[in-house]
Amino acid sequence: MLVKGVKMAWIYLFIAGLLEICWAYSMKLSEGFTRTVPTVWTLVFMVASFALLSIAMRTLPLGTAYTIWTGIGAVGAFVVGITILGEHVSMMRIIAAILIVSGIVLMKLSSTS
User: Fold this and answer.
1) Is 111 buried (19+), middle (13-18) or exposed (0-12) by CB count in 10 A?
2) How many domains does the chain have?
3) Deepest in the core among 83, 91, 112, 113, taking most CB within 10 A?
4) Range of the domain at 71
């Protein structure tokens, strides 16, 4: 049963990271919380993301869970910024994203859970 709990914790963490991307994007669309619908979506995504992160942290170590959650959000927001919002792409930014992903992979591989 413990293995199932650990697998579910990783799934919750991954979904929480995806929701972090959603709230970052909707926050951008809210234009500083001046637009109602994107503001409401931002809050809904934030609460859901934090809730799933907290559930994952019942099983996973704090450092691992938080690092992976923020990494998914950071790289995801970077990709959304480039692909949807047309933000600037440079080799340095791509290398930075690759380093973040490398850190996420290493954190997962080094986790005992």
Assistant:
1) middle
2) 1
3) 113
4) 2-110
